[in-house]
Amino acid sequence: MKRLLIVVDMQNDFITGSLGTKEAQAAVEPVVNKVLEYQNSRDEVVFTLDTHFEDYADTQEGRKLPVPHCIKGTDGWKLCPQLEDFEGKRFEKHTFGSVECAAYAAKGGYDQIELVGVCTDICVVSNALLIKAYLPETPIAVDSACCAGVTPESHKASLETMKMCQIDVR
Fold it and tell me: Cα–Cα distance between 74 and 13 in angstroms, integer?
């Protein structure tokens, strides 16, 4: 079975930085263990990187979420230290979901795709639904123990949304 793990936005700003939460910090170790599991099984792991620039405040997202984060080249933009040395393709994305990552997954001939990371209620759900649109018959899963949302309530709500869209939430 050919599997793909997509690690969504496990970057410093979402864990300990400007948008960090204790829930995101608690997700780091389970995500590292999941990456190790996939790599030990010789399955592919890829990473998305939320990527903004100095003009962030002038973007629609910046006007709606006026907290600069994941500015390319800053420490906050980097993967958290526990993940930064892992091998795997990186997809820089300038909005919530990565069309490039979804297209990559669609071309890979995977039997199963799993997503983990942050924020469950914004970028994880966006990427899961994009991939589901590209691959409606491929089993897509999200490991809820390896995710964290903006709030615990919005995390739970997004998991329910994904279940309703036939994404396997574990």
Answer: 10
Q: Which two tokens stand for residue 87?
A: 């091998």
Distance between CA 126 and CA 116 in Å, rounded? 12
**Cβ-contact 59, 113 below 8 angstroms:** no
Structural domain count of the chain: 1
pLDDT one digit per residue (tens) for the chain, 170 residues: 999 999 999 999 999 999 999 999 999 999 999 999 999 999 999 999 999 999 999 999 999 999 999 999 999 999 999 999 999 999 999 999 999 999 999 999 999 999 999 999 999 999 999 999 999 999 999 999 999 999 999 999 999 999 999 999 99
Provide the CATH number for the domain around residue 35: 3.40.50.850
Q: Which residues contact 102 (CB under 8 A, 6 or more apart)?
A: 127, 130, 131, 133, 134
Residues in the chain: 170
Domain holding 40, by residue range, is 3-50+80-169
